[in-house]
Amino acid sequence: MKIRIGFNGSFGGLLYSSGYSYDPDCVYINGTGRDYYEFYIQLNRCGTLGKNSRQEDARKNPAKNLMWNTVTVQYNPLIEEEWDEHFKVTCEYGYDFWKTVTFPFLDVEVATGNPVVFTLSPPECYMEIRYGYGTTGNRVGGPVRVGDPLTLIIYMRSKYDGFDIVVNDCYAHNGAQKKIQLIDQYGCPVDDKLISRFRGSWSESQVFETQVFAYMKTFRFTGSPALYIECDVRMCHGRCPSQPCHWRNAKSVAKRSTDVEVATTPAALSQNINLFQSLRVLQEGENSEDASALSNRTTGYYTDNSQNSVCVRSGLLAGLLALASTVLCFLSLALTVMCYRSKRLVKGCADDPAHHVIAAAPARCFLTHKGRIN
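== ZP domain-containing protein ==
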């Protein structure tokens, strides 16, 4: 996300992602006295989280996606103060991004012997996480809890047959320094308690699509609700190089040994891409509101995530309260004056010697007449 921020005067403080001021990569601006700054926030770091606006299958009914990050404006570079500001920056980036690769030109000889050169339409790749164990669960669109079963799915689709995919070097991190490896370079799980080995399936209806998936138990790093899963994906034209934990051999391959020799000859055409997904992980017994309040207490502000809420600055709120107090005092004074005048009017009527007579002319005093008028 590209952020542009302007100030009324020179700014000499700090701009960083809330909760990540200890990470130099998440401190974007160390003020130099300018009044305008531009910086970038990475989507897979510094507490950036996302969700889908709908829980439908994005391959059939594309759903809009949201990414957000909370940015702190700290006016004093050394200390946090009450007038520091916090902004939740939200980016709606449309539909799911299917990453693609670009293969070089291919020379194909037809029966006439004349070479025909054409560009190979590249496959597309996408990662998502679903609830439960299996590929039919709902897409994760909100917070998950520690211990929840999830399925990590990587899709590859193309208009033509003849492509292969392998997944390796998967890592989990908190968007900062904490990082553990889930899948090694051979495609094998490092810890079976956290993630299973990859399995796969493919279909040939309308488009050629391959699904590679692994089951995992939700966990989180100490003190950090943000969890990022990143994997290196290799797409090949033809079969990808064999590896000990290839998803096509999920039933026949035994546990990997360090003595196993791995074929290193690459496919004729192949390219690597990196895919990631972000999760917000809650502890057992913790609800979304409690997590938001706890996060806000640690950073010194409160945020209501309701889409219909309005954020009011403290100065404006104080001004509104002062105005309301002034209006209330004015109304109280006016009511007191009216009561005083009313009492004087009643007293004047009581002291009038002709108060039993109703004059024909206009008068200030009126009495109730209990008689019959013919």
